[in-house]
Amino acid sequence: MSTVFVAGATGRLGRLIVDSLRRRDVRVRALVRPGNTEGRQAFDDPAIEIVEGDIRDPADRLTRALQGVDVVVSAVQGGAEVIIDGQVNLLRAAEQAGVPRWIPSDFSLGIDRLDYGDNDFADLRKRAAESYRSSTVAPTSVLIGAFLEVLNMPFYNWVDWESGTFNYWGDGDQPVDFSTYSDTAEWTAEVALDPSAAGRTVRVAGDVLTLKELRRAMERGSGRRLEARQLGTTDDLRAEIECRKAVATDAFEYLLLQYNWAMVTGKGKLDPLDNHRYPGIQPIGAEEYFRQTMR
Prior knowledge:
Helix content is about 40%, strand content about 20%. The protein has helices at about 10-25, 35-40, 60-65, 80-95, 120-130, 150, 180-190, 210-220, 235-245, 255-265, 285-295; strands at about 5, 25-30, 50, 70-75, 100-105, 140, 140-145, 145, 160, 165-170, 175-180, 200-205, 205-210, 225-230. A 6-stranded parallel sheet has the order 3-2-1-4-5-6, with helices on both faces. It has a 3-stranded mixed sheet with strand order 8-11-13. A 3-stranded mixed sheet has the order 9-10-14. Helix 5 links the parallel strand 5 and strand 6. It is globular and about 55 Å long. One of its GO terms (molecular function) is oxidoreductase activity. InterPro entries: NAD(P)-bd_dom_sf (IPR036291), NmrA-like (IPR008030), NmrA/Isoflavone_reductase-like (IPR051609). Pfam families: NmrA (PF05368).
């Protein structure tokens, strides 16, 4: 039986990854911050070992927790102190413990195709990846496109169910990759148990649709009418990003637009997709997702 160490185990994606691993009879060591009583209680399973700590703990402490681990999975979220400093610290501890493989917290668009400056959060992951190249622990980046759950949230400004509008930039004809959190967890568990994935990038998606097709899928799934509203061209979007960056006090004031830009220009498109490598996973498409969540 394999043993997988999961950092970020109490987060939205992390908990699902733990569940997916357990369904495959994998022993899990879940890293839980001290004092997170709710997080500990969520893992009521004798095959899940709770390890109190943080990925920024002293490396020798993490090294002890990683002894005998086959794969490390990181599902952490945060700024540079977590994505770069914390993950690199975890990686160094994994090296000392002799862990052969790990999956960093990349779960996103095709960040390997983006340039520095295209997306602030992608920049953090690209900088962290520079530290992986010389490591004895083989990385596997799992890229899944955009989370459907996130796109359905009001702050993303794509869909307004109350007013019945669907907003988009560009011409709406660029294919975009979409996945759910649950399918991402399933793929991550499969990748963790797939030795052939060591040292490579795995690209998977639950659905690939243009934004025009996505709107129609949302309408069919929800049973509601959505009026399409074009907000501007991709050049307009880039200009809006630069305007916001010039006066921003926080990256979140323009970050979502950066994700939009990577999607509608096609620069963040996943290619090729590796869904065929994991035929046991039948992902949820956009129409079915909105049927389940909006009815």
